[in-house]
Amino acid sequence: MGKHLACFKAYDVRGIVPDELNSDIAYRIGRAYADETGAHKVCIGYDIRLSGPELYDALARGLNDAGVDVVHLGLIGTEMVYFATAFYGYDGGIMITASHNPPQYNGMKMVRHESRPISGDTGLLAIEELAAKGEFTRTGAGTREDKDVYGDFVQHLLAIVPPSDLKPLRILADPGNGAAGVAMDALLPHLPVQVEKLRWEPDGHFPHGVPNPILEEARAMTVEALATGSYDFGVAWDGDYDRCFFLDETGQFIEGYYIVGLLAQAILSKDPSQTIIYDPRLMWNTLDIVERLGGRAVVCKSGHAFIKEKMRAEDAVYGGEMSAHHYFKDHWYCDSGMIPFLLIARLVSQTGRSLGDLVGAMIEAYPCSGEVNSVVEDVPSTLARVEAAYPGVPVNRLDGITLEFPEWRFNLRGSNTEPVIRLNVETRGDRALMLAKTEELLALIRA
Q1: Do both 327 and 380 map to the same domain?
Q2: Domain end residue (candidates: 148, 165, 197)
Q3: How far apart, in whole angstroms, are the C-alpha atoms of residue 5 and residue 21?
């Protein structure tokens, strides 16, 4: 098998079942995880994908054969593995999910104790090498137990945003037939809100396509439903609901960048002394809000492992990425799709302003291109070509290249996993300039 397995990526495991990920490989990953982490008790959950239970069984068998006790969480969301691992003090957790990948995929997200991430050089490469070689050291006879964590998870959420902070809002919620509806069913009886349910049933056949609300076609049904009713806002999730997306009362999709600003506002208006972590792709709006409310803003390279590490180092209360990943100190510095829903509901409740109104001011002040992807032959030479087009301008290399001018700025970075380059442009209140500069840059990139 060599030392490589096609399903191992930069941050997690993802592959086509059964070609790249199957029971044999899942068993090996269990054995390798045990050897690499030294864990004695590990929890495992899976999303709605049909291959989940079978991969769970093989993974659990691998862990058991290494002497690891397994806690079976069943059908849940990724953030519930993070919750269970840290809350119950387990040595680690593994979520079986392929998030928004097509139906034939599955994968795994792994954490250590306290839900510290396992990716790249923090153990993932070592696990891949061990699993590929198939030579394992630990042996034993671990046990298995089932655990329903929904009750404790809901209490954890309600401690972060108490129901008394919410007004009786009308919300349209769309899990896209992913796993979020199950968590919402556990949460909603405790909230004073009215929720209209769309594509609610968890269904691994994905009758309406894979839930990935960042894609226009995936959210068309949500937009349509919002146009027909009088809602305060709409919320939609991806399959394992570690990303959450918002639409305003008119059905307008809200760019993830502005949600970072809104969540910073929601948190700092409660406690202005806190630190917020943001990524360098788009940032003027976030900086403006944090500064205005008296908080402290710290920039960090995008990517969950970097942000979680930076949040711990800076004792930050919240970290936001424009890709709709939102991280919270109260959630062991991990990402959650349920906490943003509650925080935005609280912000709308307490300001008495609509989501469209709250975001509209930000969009006007800092119009942005959103992330525009281009397939290129060579990422480094494309970056060099773009940089050469703006001589004499200081370049920030924290994450790709960032160039700042008085009235506009842009970030351009290569993907970790494919020959794709990602562009983000924003201006100070000048939409026409933003559109012109985006075109200018795309012409350079795609030349």
Answers
A1: no
A2: 148
A3: 9
Closest CA to 286 of 267, 313, 262, 316: 262
Residues 6+ apart with CB under 8 A from 369: 423, 424, 425, 426, 434, 435, 438
Q: What is the dihedral of CA 337, 339, 345, 348, to 10 degrees?
A: -100
Beta-strand relationship, 318-320 and 296-299: unpaired
Residue in 23, 51, 99, 354 annotated catalytic:
99
Residue 20 sits in the same domain as residue 158: no
The number of residues making up the chain comes to 447
Q: For residue 18, is the peptide bond before it cis, meaning its omega torsion is within 30 degrees of 0? A: yes
The CATH number covering residue 405 comes to: 3.30.310.50
Are residue 441 and residue 400 in the same domain, yes or no? yes
**Residues spanned by the domain of 277:** 152-365
Active-site residue flag, 99:
yes
Tokens representing 192 are 């004073």
pTM for the model stands at 0.97
Report the helix count and the strand count for the chain, using DSSP H and E.
14, 20
CA atoms within a 13 Å half-sphere pointing along the CA-CB vector of 291: 6
Averages of pLDDT over runs of 10 residues in the chain (447 residues) are 82 97 98 98 98 98 99 98 98 97 96 96 96 98 98 98 98 98 98 98 96 95 94 97 97 97 97 97 98 98 94 98 96 98 98 96 97 96 97 97 98 91 98 98 97
- State the Cα–Cα distance between residues 235 and 214, nearest whole angstrom: 12
Pick the last residue of a domain from 341, 365, 389. 365
**DSSP E strands, 269-407:** 275-278, 296-299, 318-320, 326-328, 334-335, 372-375, 395-396, 401-404
